[in-house]
Design goal:
Main location: membrane
Oligomer: single chain
Subcellular location: Membrane
Protein name: Solute carrier family 35 (Adenosine 3'-phospho 5'-phosphosulfate transporter), member B2
Strand content: under 5%
Order of helices and strands: HHHHHHHHHHHHHHH
Distance between the termini: 36 Å
Number of domains: 1
Pfam family, one: UAA
Helix content: over 70%
Organism: Tetraselmis sp. GSL018
């Protein structure tokens, strides 16, 4: 209770409070992006130069961390820990989420981090498709135009500069690009399904945020463990981190950064709504590309900067027009968010996707 009182008092300092929320999201997710690229792309060991290739192990560590936080959240806030929906609902979200995350990490073996990050912006299209199919949602012409502009920007980026990852130096550039793009298409498709099906679960069942996170991440942990054991990768993954302890430190830091970022995201959406969150996430993605280009030496061509500007310009325009619509409609983005179920993203696995529908 004392913690809740302190948070309520802190909210009175509105500008400082917003800055704290923004810094929390951007800081955690920038760190997450840097660690993701460091683990999947850069070699470990001064002599051997081994690369980490166990994407499912990364997913497992991430989900176990989030599951632990969700369990603590259920206990602290007195929420029920029994499932309120059939297990297959949680499992369906879990399967799509694990596959999407696996594709995201695996893609870094073939395409650069800026390509991967920019491709995520194109998730509007699969989210809109799944929303129409599963939720029978109807989108405005403006939404389709913005989605097309984002797609054009991504296409310009891919066609006008280097897209190959340093981890695929042994592969032909065409083959590496093909595999990387295929994996990102898989990410977009499964990630779009994840967010849409989660939305359906919240509307169909009276469940809390932590309850859904707990069982989705629990299923994801079992699924990741099964994949590692059945593929014979669990032993080699442990052997790798035993040879390179710094890799395990990076993996745990990545998991903590992702989970902490999700908590900041959930809190920010509750306090200020999805519009502020959408703006922050768009800015974070741009900064991630910029930071990756500096730290990991990914120089972007003039055409790639044009594509990047087109993508983020369209996303900022989308956020600005939604803000005007909210004002003219007499509703705040925060109230709209409350109309949904009370997201690492307001459900920690889906809020980023919701804001881009």
């Amino acid at each position: 209770m004392a913690l809740l009182t302190d948070l309520q008092q802190w909210q009175h300092f509105d500008k400082l409070h917003i800055a704290w929320c923004v810094f929390g999201i951007v800081g955690c997710l920038l760190l997450y992006g840097v660690l993701q690229e460091r683990i999947m792309v850069e070699p470990f060991g001064e002599v051997e130069g081994e690369r980490f290739t166990f994407s499912l192990f990364l997913v497992l560590c991430n989900r176990l961390t989030t599951m632990t936080v969700a369990m603590i959240g259920c206990l602290v806030y007195g929420e029920g820990i029994l499932p309120v929906a059939p297990i297959w609902n949680y499992a369906a979200v879990s399967v799509s989420n694990v596959v999407a995350t696996f594709c995201q990490y695996e893609a870094l073996k073939y395409v650069s981090f800026p390509v991967q990050t920019l491709a995520k912006c194109a998730k509007m299209i699969p989210v809109m498709i799944w929303g129409s199919v599963i939720m029978q949602k109807v989108y405005k012409a403006k939404d389709y135009i913005i989605a097309v502009l984002v797609t054009i920007g991504c296409t310009i980026f891919v066609l006008t500069g280097t897209v190959k990852s340093k981890a695929s130096s042994h592969m032909d550039i065409g083959a590496a690009s093909l595999w990387g793009c295929a994996l990102m298409l898989g990410y977009l498709g499964f990630d779009g399904f994840t967010s849409t099906f989660q939305d359906r679960m919240f509307k169909g069942f009276s469940m809390t945020i932590y309850n859904q996170i707990l069982y989705v991440t629990m299923c994801s942990s079992f699924l990741s463990m099964f994949g590692l054991v059945s593929s014979g990768q669990l032993g080699p993954a442990f052997a790798f981190v035993a040879r390179h302890p710094i890799a395990l430190q990076y993996i745990m830091a990545l998991s903590v950064a992702a989970t902490t970022g999700q908590l900041f995201i959930s809190y920010t959406i509750r306090c200020y709504g999805a519009l502020l969150f959408a703006t922050v996430m768009t800015t974070r993605q741009f900064l991630s590309i910029l930071l990756s280009s500096i730290l990991f030496l990914h120089p972007l061509s003039g055409g790639q900067w044009v594509g990047t500007t087109l993508v983020f310009g369209a996303l900022y325009y989308k956020t600005a027009t939604h803000k005007k619509e909210d004002k003219s409609g007499g509703k705040s983005s925060g109230s709209q968010q409350e109309g949904k179920a009370a997201d690492p993203e307001s459900q920690p696995l889906k809020a980023e996707n919701d804001t881009k529908q």
